[in-house]
Amino acid sequence: MKHRRLWDRQDDRRNRTLYYVATTHSALQSVAAALDQVQGIATGAEIDLAKFRTDVPGLGHISLVIEDAYVAEEPVRVAAIASEYAQALSATIERLDAPDCPRKLTLFPKDGIHRSEAMLPSGLYRVSVQGKSFRTVEDVFLVLDAGLSA
Q: What is the pTM of this model?
């Protein structure tokens, strides 16, 4: 059994306190003390989120609804919910694991949800959904051959 070291960033970044957990790396998530320490680090840090997010006044929000994985023989269904009415939203699907031309989709609303679908070969993809006066939203997903799992 090896000792795993966790450290806590206190007020002074140069002052680090080391913590040892007597377990294997694969079992760290089962040790309550280690989880408490990580939660303390994650919730105690003061992070200026404005450095990572841009908030442009007047832009609406889009909520993207997409699965993490699809089977290659079935359509990839892209759904988006806009915070304000939009006649249509645009989506771009690009393959990340192999060069390919991005695929453009138009999502039209039905019952308040903009929808479209596409048949895609197996691979790793990113979808971006945008609309006039909306912030762009993105997510990644897999398309797998039948019989495989993520």
A: 0.63
